[in-house]
Amino acid sequence: MRKILYRDIVEATAKACIEANIIASSDLIEAYQRAITKEVDELSGRIMHDLYENAKLAKSHHLPICQDTGTAVIFLEIGQNVLIDGGFLMDAFQEGVADGYQKGYLRKSIVSHPLTRKNTGNNTPAVIHVDIVAEDVFKVTVAPKGGGSENMSRLKMLTPSEGLEGFKEFVFETIRLAGPNPCPPIVVGACLGGNFESCALQAKKNLLRPIGQRHSDPELSILEEKWLEEINALHIGPQGFGGKTTAFDVHLEFLPCHIASMPAAVNLNCHVSRHQQFEL
Amino acid sequence: MEVIHLQTPLKQEDVKGLRAGDYLLISGIMYTARDSAHRRMIEALDNHRPLPIPLPGSIIYYAGPAPAPPGKPIGSIGPTTSYRMDSYAPRLIEEGLSMMIGKGSRNKLVQQAMIDHEAVYCAAWGGAGALLAGCVKNAKCIAYEELGPEAIYELEVENFPVMVVNDTIGQDAYELMGGQQ
Ligand code: SF4
Question: What is the pLDDT of residues B41-77, one digit of tens each?
């Protein structure tokens, strides 16, 4: 049995919220740099240059990369032998998010009710996903998710006869409909299979993979490369004003599913693709 | 890239001369407002109550800033997606609003209102909030403070960069340049 202190979780979560929102990860920085070399047109080149400058400025001036510091989405992998000492695990994450958003001058973007829409004032509740794993792992990813790109995400219950073509059509239609709204260059997380909720969750989890990292399954890896090329040929471009970089990357996954079903989910992320990991 | 410098309050002839794809640097005053602030302004108009901001010659910036850290006038402040304000915008344009700044496409009703009443819609780079914060010299909350990031802020800006998306003759920069539709 391994003990982890409640306070340590609170502190690490707060820190991860701040860092995720202020410091662009190295894969994102490299994606900006690659796009700058590709965007030879004056306007798309300028936009990519500005977005890269923005990320550098955010770090040096200690400001959020984007003012929409998102819903705090937390992915926890916890070993079955781990014991939390000093409080309830889920409270620790909520307290950490509240602390981090307050101390980091991050925007509080959560309302307590979808209709009355009163701001909760500390960006809680966070959305927390838990995977129980073997041994004594305690691994957390904090992935703030902006509203603009989340609003352009879609799920559809396809029928098995629609096949890979149906999946592809749905993914591309989602990207075309989104156009400039999700702040391109985007990152695409898409899943085929699972059920209604596992499909959507997997699409979101795909966004956690570093930009440029291909799927370990060669079939999916080839598909990702091909689709990325075709998405970039849509010419939506940086911020929707045309150009070669509509997406930084595409991450795909297939899941087992019911004999009657073939759900498809596309979770779009903006160029401010944020995730920060810690282990205790 | 050719640059057009604009100073607020905007003059009608300045607005009329702008074309989709023009790159502007704006100096002067702009007002932030997003979903909830728009709803309240429309309610005020319906009830013949005064608005917290003047509309003719004015710019509304669809944005909800991050809180100002110590020593800075404002936190990161990039645009939010504009289509959510589409149901409110025609009314404000009719009342004289000259420019909106946000990101993403507008619907046909908003585009028609811009043609009919000579207003324009511009985009700022989405997700460039830290960069754009550098153009804000002063900021004060002037209405609906209880809405937090959705309150109306009066921003004093210098050389705030935007691109004209919809002009007064019905052109759309996303369609002209971005492979849309
Ligand atoms: S979609 Fe992303 S980059 Fe655009 S405003 Fe929202 S969080 Fe920021």
Answer: 999 999 999 999 999 999 999 999 999 999 999 999 9
- Count how many pairs of residues, chain A against chain B, have C-beta atoms within 8 Å: 153
Q: Pick B3-171's CATH classification: 1.10.580.10, 3.30.70.100, 3.20.130.10, 3.10.580.10.
A: 3.20.130.10
Task: Give A14's DSSP letter.
Answer: H
Chain A residues close to B173, C-beta within 8 Å: 241
Backbone CA torsion sign across B170, B25, B8, B43:
positive
Low-confidence ranges of chain A (pLDDT < 70): none
Model confidence pTM above 0.90: yes
Q: How far is CA A43 from CA A27, B10, B126, in A?
A: 24, 25, 15
**Catalytic annotation on B5?**
no
pLDDT score for B180: 56
Helices (H) and strands (E) in chain A, counts: 8, 10
How far is the centre of ligand 1, averaged over its atoms, from the C-alpha of A176 (Å)?
17
Query: Distance between CA atoms of A71 and A77, rounded to whole angstroms?
Result: 19
- B80–A105 C-beta distance less than 8 A: no
- The token duo for A142 is 């904090």
Taking each helix axis from N to C end, the angle separating A89-103 and A6-22, rounded to the nearest 10 degrees, works out to 40
DSSP labels, A218-278? HHHHHHHHHHHHHHHTT---GGGS--S-SEEEEEEEEE---TT-EEEEEEEE-SS---EEE
pLDDT tens-place string over residues A70-82? 999 999 999 999 9
Domain ranges of chain B: 3-171
Q: What is the pLDDT of residues A13-34, one digit of tens each?
A: 999 999 999 999 999 999 999 9
ipTM score of complex: 0.94
Q: Rounded to an integer, what distance in angstroms lies between the CA atom of residue A232 and that of residue A250?
A: 11
Q: Look at A67 and B65 and tell me if their CB atoms are within 8 Å.
A: yes
Segments of chain B scoring below 50 in pLDDT: 181
